Every structure is written in C-alpha cells, then in structure tokens.
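Q: Got a minute? One more chain.
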Amino acid sequence: MAPSGTCHLCGRYGKLSYEHVPPRAAFNSRPLVATAIDQLVGCDEPSTIKGRVFQRGAGAYTLCPQCNSTTGSWYGPEYVDWVYQGMNILVAASKAPSLFYNFHIFPLRVLKQIACMFFSVNSEKFCSAQRDLQRFVLDRRKRYLPGHLRIFTFYAVGERARQSGFIGRLDVSGRGGNSTFAEICFPPFGYALTVDNPPDDRMLDISYFGLYDIDKFITMTLRLPVLPVINYVPGDYRTQKDIDAAVEANRVASSVVE
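A: Always. Here it is, folded:
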C-alpha cells in the first residue's frame, strides 16, 4: 500500500508514488542496497553495515502520482536517450573518454528531468524553499534555470552510486572552493546542483541547457570530465590511489603522535 505524505515537487499532501532516481529505464531497475551516511561515518568496516534493500531500484516514495506521471511523460524518455548515449560513449572509450562527442538531445527536457530528480533527493521542504525551480519543472515550456542555481555534470566512474540532498562542503583540495550542493551519482553520469561553486571545478556546467525551447532537438558537442566515485562521501572524487595515499598519510601521522 502506497504511503501518504507531502509531494516533494508540488507540495500537496496525499498518496505518494515510487519515484525512481534516476528513471527506471536509465539502468535503474535492479535491486540495490542503500546505507545512510550517518551509519557510515566513523565506521571502520562499512561492509559490515546492513543497509536497506531497494528491490525496485534507487528511489523512494517522494512524488504524488500526478507529478510522477506528468514529469515522467514530459521529460523521462528524452533523459533516458541522453543516458544511453553517455553509457555508449563510456563503454566505447573503456571508461576513459577524453574527446568531444556529439550528443543528440532535447537539452531543456534533459535539464528539467535532472532538476526534478533533485526534488526527490532533498526533503519535502525543498519545494517551498525553491519556488523558482519548482515552477521551472512544473511549467513544461518554462525556460531558464533560476539564476541562483547551476547544474553540473560529469561521467561518474567507480564502485558507488550515491545521492545527497543539499550539504555544505569546505574545500581543502583546491578543486573548486567551498560549495553548497546536492549530488546524484548514478552511472554513467553524476550531477551537482549548486548555489555557489561546484564541489569540483572539473565538472561541466550544463545550466545553459535551459536556454533552449522544449521542442528544440539539437546535436551538442560536449567534452565531459571523468570523475571517480569510489566512496560514500558526497563531493569526493578522489581516485583509489589518492584515497590509499591519504589513509597511509593519516596512519603515519597517527603513529608519530603516539
């Protein structure tokens, strides 16, 4: 039986439907195990934590049936096309694409679907705090992402899929500055919705997808960065080698202090 609650997109209270994030057809149909980040922080053996099993793929009961159905029909198929093109490029380039590639897409529909997904990964209060973004998603023909927000993307390569509502990140790596962002990483793409800097300055800003009309289908030549998603920490795009080096450095520092 479907639960009741506040729709994360329209803000109305009622029955909720299961919203796949990303859409089910975008390689998100298999069962997965999800673990809350507060369980993982400070845990020496994350593999021992028993997470929640999602039999239907990543997602949750976040949208009312009307918002789920409407946005899915308006933007879902074109978003899935975008994802399949990205996956084909990743596979053909052995997960290391470094060139410009052509994407044949409806840019505004892709951007609106990404924006819609961020309503689901944030709390139900997000819609009342982001009315301009809410209107951007619910008005099919509305162009232009709200000026205080930007959406970035990249090829997400690694062992993890992860999602996070808005958090603040203090930059100590020199890869983008302090950042307030929400994140969705699910191969082949990762996304960051930001109010200031991206969590990593290598990401590609695709906010300009909002400049196009809803029915505009074009060929865009894009060069997306490849960022590893190895662990569960939002905004961390270090390679396994970098992570191992940091662990060893901390071990050495701890032994010196002792």
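A: The chain is about 30% helix and 25% strand.
Q: Perfect, thanks.
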